[in-house]
Amino acid sequence: MMKFPTNFLWGGATAANQCEGAYLEDGKGLSIADAMPGGKLRFKKINAKEFDWTIDETSNQYPNHTGIDHYHRYEEDIALFAEMGFKCYRFSIAWTRIFPTGIEDIPNEKGLAHYEKMIDTCLKYDIEPVITISHYEMPLYLAKEYGGWQDRRLIDSYVRYATTLIERFGSKVKYWMTFNEINGALHFPSLSLGMVPSTGSLDKQKVFQGLHHQFVASSLVVKKAHELVEGIQVGMMTIYATGYGFDCNPLNQVANMEKNQEVNGFCCEVQAGGAYPTYTKRLFEKYGIQSLEMEPTDIELLKSYPVDYIGLSYYMSTSIDVVDPEAAKVAGNLTGGIKNPHLETSEWGWQKDPIGLRIGLNELYTRFKKPLFIVENGLGAIDTLTEEKKVYDTYRISYLREHIEQMGLAIADGVDLIGYTPWGCIDLISASTGEMSKRYGFIYVDQDDQGEGTLKRYKKESFYWYKEVIGSNGEQL
Fold first, then answer.
1. Which stretch of 50-64, 65-79, 317-331 has the lowest confidence by average pLDDT?
2. In 280-416, beta strands by DSSP E
3. How is residue 14 annotated by DSSP?
4. Does residue 145 have an active-site annotation?
5. Which of 190, 285, 310, 373 makes the best surface tag, with the fewest CB within 10 Å?
């Protein structure tokens, strides 16, 4: 296995709406994440035709409102990241801390000041900030009044917001990402497009129109960032789930090809490749989509300002079988598939496939020749805090070790890999279920699904293991 580059960025990742809490402090406005109820029925409730973003605390819990109080405890948390040896920390900025409704002309200074302190704390420990501009959140006002990203007016709101961040922090922050898991819109438009059934989330015409507006907004931000700061790197971020045809049946291989094009390829083709892919017409015909509404300059803009790198989340692979309608199914990161008999599953039913990561990295790099950055990977599991305040998460260590080994093999294959930030480096609220019990972190946070607990932080066994990994630059696994 080839050694990791000396400048490889080892770190961890979080999202503001899942860890910060303080959802109405210091001038912050309401976001769509604030209106998403917690619990295993979260997606079912949001996908109901009557859902209208109303916050009903008599019927629902909203764990995102308190998170793990990272807003007030970021100094303590970043110090723990530094103790592990982090070279970078990927976090997101809450849009509504800067522009509470999204339509203001003047940003909220208290929000900007908070993130400046966070960035400066990272830099104090020589930790490179990696910032996601919008991570599954947007001003609730824009979702309710405009119907989310299907409305082209959101482009201007987003670009004003992103430009404000880059003007303020661009001299301190090199790596940025425009939208978290942008292709998640194909599976769950409420998270990334701010659209629910009552505002068109089931209408693929509106979904792809919303994606087009995000593509344009992203290119405008790339353009603006390059004009403002020399050497700044603006990336995209995509869910990547390596896909397999279930068997050698050509029908399954064709189905897998088409699924990979749609799920893994489409957004990357536009954002990294700079153009809508050759299979767009077939894809649009599949969903009965007419031509998208575009401004005359949109296509040239996408071509001229593609992203500088591709950030990706990788948790699992998927299999497809269109021949056997009775094939057993499994869950996944917003999308599932057919059960692969060669793979084990997590407690939440996600199929663990470290070799699939090497395959996926090679697929992406061979196609786009852009640097890659694994900005999410990890194992969601139920952890037990012992009476001695210890967490023995050997299962998490095994999962991460096997994926890091495959990263090294991908580098030996010639893949240009910037870094690795495992998801939820400190326990936080799950995006898919709003649960605290689905834990990913190296650091245990004393809080349960009902929001009860001391919020004290405890180092898990994986904390010390990951510290050795970073200290040896991936040689001690």
1. 317-331
2. 309-313, 318-320, 329-330, 337-338, 344-345, 351-352, 372-376
3. -
4. no
5. 285
User: Tokens 């659209």 map to which residue?
Assistant: 195
d(CA 445, CA 284): 45
Which of 75, 376, 387, 468 is an active site residue? 376
* 209 belongs to a structural domain: yes
- Is position 1 within any domain? no
Which pLDDT value is given to residue 332?
Answer: 67
CA 382 to CA 405: how far, in whole Å?
Answer: 24
Check if the beta carbon of residue 457 is closer than 8 Å to that of residue 76. yes
> Could you tell me if residue 355 is inside a domain?
yes
pLDDT at 337: 81
- Tell me the CATH number at 279: 3.20.20.80
Sign of CA dihedral 305, 165, 140, 377: positive
Q: Shortest CA distance to 180 belongs to which of 237, 129, 139?
A: 237
CB 64, CB 447: distance < 8 Å: no
Per the structure block, which two tokens stand in for 343?
A: 């793979």
Q: Longest Cα pair distance anywhere in the chain, in angstroms?
A: 65
Q: How many domains are there within the chain?
A: 1
User: What does the pLDDT look like over 246-280, one tens digit per residue?
Assistant: 999 999 999 999 999 999 999 999 999 999 999 99
Give domain status of residue 4, yes or no: no
Tokens of 124: 């104090």
- The boundaries of the domain holding residue 418 are 9-471
Tokens representing 424 are 């939820």
* DSSP three-state, residue 172: coil
Residue 234's beta-bridge partner residues?
176
pTM of the complete model: 0.97
Local confidence band at 346 (pLDDT 50, 70, 90 cut-offs): confident
CA distances from 155 to 212, 215, 220 (A): 10, 9, 9
